Amino acid sequence: MKFLKCLLFIFALTVLNCVLQTNAMERLFEKQDYKAIIEKINKSRLKPEQKIAWLQNQAKLGHTILIEELINNLIMIGGQREDCFYWQFVMLFRLSQDLSCYKKNDLYETVNEQLKVIRVTLIKSIQKSASLDFKTKLRILDEAFKLVLNLENNLPNPYIVSFKNHKKNLLPANEWPELRKKSLVECYENIREELQKGSKQQTDNKQSETQQQTNIEHTLKRLHELLKQQDYAAISELVEKNNYEQITNWLRVEALNGHWPLMLDLTRKMIILGMYENDNNVEFLLILLYAANLRLNQDMNCFLNLSNHRQLLERICKSSKTSYLSLKNSELSDYDIFLKAKELINKPLPRPFIPACKSLQLKADFENIRAEVLHDEYTDFCYYCKKSRNENGRKALQLCDGCRKIRYCSKECQRQDWSRHKSECVKKEKKKSEDRKEERKEDLAIKYCQKCEANDKEVAALKNCDLCFDTTMYCQNCIEDHTHNNID
């Protein structure tokens, strides 16, 4: 019996608490103290789902601030995208309705601008949503419009947070229904029109992207054909016209395959795009320019009769060297750049190419010539300190007197390197000496005709005259008509 009384007492207290809570909430709604309402709900022991259900019920009655709170809670729990957009449209309609009930002054204009920003942001957000098609977006908009329209005159008093003294700024209450309805229809029509424009623009953009992709594929195919023909002038023109990322990537790949005209095109494009501001890009540009010069020098040596075109080619080299020096940073070593440029072109290269020399004949062993040119490039660096002629104040590098193969920028570098170079230099000097000895031996072994000075390598044989008392030698033609030295 006592237990039942205790249960009844607890139940009575619970009911009384609920009644008091309900009355307190109703008073807060009458005062439109939404801040206190939200605090009260957040402090309650309601689960997130229960809280959202309660907020939805209040949002359906048109309380704009609670609609905003509902949207925030839906986003927090990862609610469905359609629900979020639906309540965002409802909030936008309600804000537009409530704002129409206030007098037009400076504050009104400020709030109206804020409302426009909210509308634009919402429209952009829903237009970017790839998961919703255009029909679904319009359906969500129509449902939100119907909800607010069906509330008619059962809406709460107009409430905009920015209007602190809202009663003074409110228009007469008898004008509210008409103003709200007019504002709702205008807002709905504007949003619907914006969505339709956005949908049309998206369709146009897709068509444009498809067309662009087709153009890129066609351009890449054409570039491959021109590359086989080594028509670099046409490639350069086509690359200039098409500033697509895929085209630039193609240019980069093919430039790194040893096509020196494409290397120069790529450096020009990077400079135009301002890509030399980054240190890594500067280093890459320097390597490209150096590699382009190496490749040009290689190809120049592969053609016969280049004398008529040498000035033109030297002008191209000078231009790329000028660009190289203008980008040069003291922290980057010429020798390091040379090694990286050498690695870049140390691969199977395209056929030698000089624009002005298409009609000229190629040397048969041009692959070996290219390797020699690349090896000779080492002579532009001091063998010890690895500094180039530019880094040494443009002073000429001096050849080693012994081997006549390697160069030094100063006597100091030669002395410092002698311990390493000595064995190599002595071997070369010894080989030279042996070669000279062999030449002298050959010279001594050669016999000459006393009269015409032909040697025994040029004629079949040299003979002594049987009537002469000396060992003088004559060729077959001269032996018969020469003057005998034993006859007076």
Write the SSE topology.
Blueprint: H1 2-31, H2 34-43, H3 48-59, H4 64-76, H5 81-100, H6 106-128, H7 134-151, H8 166-169, H9 176-228, H10 232-241, H11 245-255, H12 260-272, H13 279-300, H14 310-327, H15 334-345, H16 366-376, E1 398-399, E2 407-408, H17 411-445, E3 463-464, E4 473-474
Antiparallel strand pairs: 1-2, 3-4
Helix content: 55-70%
- Form type: elongated
Instruction: Give the mean pLDDT.
Output: 77
Strand order of the largest sheet: 1-2
Count of separate structural domains: 3
Radius of gyration: 47 Å
Topology pattern, helix = H, strand = E: HHHHHHHHHHHHHHHHEEHEE
Q: Return residue spans where pLDDT drops below 50 for at least 5 consecutive residues.
A: none
Question: In percent terms, what proportion of residues is strand?
Answer: under 5%
Oligomeric state: single chain
Structural class: mainly alpha
Number of helices: 17
- Total strands: the figure is 4
Sheet bearing the most strands, described? 2 strands, antiparallel
Terminus-to-terminus distance: 177 Å
